[in-house]
Design a protein that fits this description.
The protein is of the alpha+beta class. The chain has helices spanning about 1-25, 30-50, 65-80, 105-115; strands at about 50-65, 85-90, 95-100, 120-130. Strands 2-3-1-4 form a four-stranded antiparallel beta sheet. The mean pLDDT is about 85.
Length: about 130
């Protein structure tokens, strides 16, 4: 019985460990091929999504007056030049959106700085540009 158990254990361990040794023996040409395939997949994904992913932005203004939205945008760029700014028309409002944040925490840190000058700003989920 012990002999059967030991032989079964050896068979199971060899079955588990043999693929690991094969995987560890990649030659450089196989690695390069795999890297190139991954690069192609990422490029295709970027083409399909127009270079955008899900993320967070900060909305600092929304209203029906286009000129007011442009004024807010100009005021913001004068005080915070390190953020991207987009003015969009989301019927029936003009919306001023700030930044491209991958995480809500990153957006929240910036929101705290921005709320000093723009107290009604808040975080919204949306598509962001990949940097």
């Amino acid at each position: 019985m012990k002999l059967l158990f030991k032989s079964l254990l050896v068979v199971v361990l060899s079955a588990i460990l043999s693929p690991l040794t094969v995987l560890g023996q990649n030659n450089p040409s196989q690695t390069e091929l795999k890297v190139n395939q991954l690069i192609e997949k990422r490029a295709e994904y970027s083409r399909l999504t127009n270079g955008e992913i899900d993320g967070y932005r900060i909305k600092i203004h929304f209203g029906g007056d286009r000129e007011e939205a442009k004024t807010i945008e100009t005021k913001f760029s004068a005080k915070f030049s390190d953020y991207s700014i987009d003015t969009e028309y989301q019927q029936p409002n003009f919306v001023v959106l700030i930044g491209d944040f991958k995480s809500k925490l990153e957006a929240f840190e910036s929101l705290k700085k921005i709320q000093i000058e723009f107290p009604n700003s808040f975080i919204v989920k949306g598509k962001i540009r990949v940097r």
